[in-house]
Write the structure tokens for this entry.
Amino acid sequence: MKKKIRMIARIVFGILLLGAGLTGLLGSMPPMQYPEPANKFMIALVDTGYMIVIISSLKVLVGVSMLINRFVPLALVVFMSISVNMVLFHAFLDIKSILPTLVIGFLNVYLLFGYIESYKPLLKAKN
């Protein structure tokens, strides 16, 4: 039963990230309306010329990894920093629209713990 739930979570996570990543890369998403401090932050990210491309590309790569079930533990670790920053962005700058971000953050953490056996060698203390 746990494996089925983990598989469903992995597929849902993959679909969400792939969709969001492709939308970001293709520029087909309408501009989001954020409160003023959040809007300034997003404008700064877009103005860098590369941050949105990197974040969207990672979303696509991690989403594909989830869907084809390859390198999943690595992809989850790579995406964790983005998940944390997404949650913090909404928690501090745009709390009204935090729900979708919480779903992505929850799925990332849930799957990380689902693949905890893959991380145990990394977490072992050296003598």
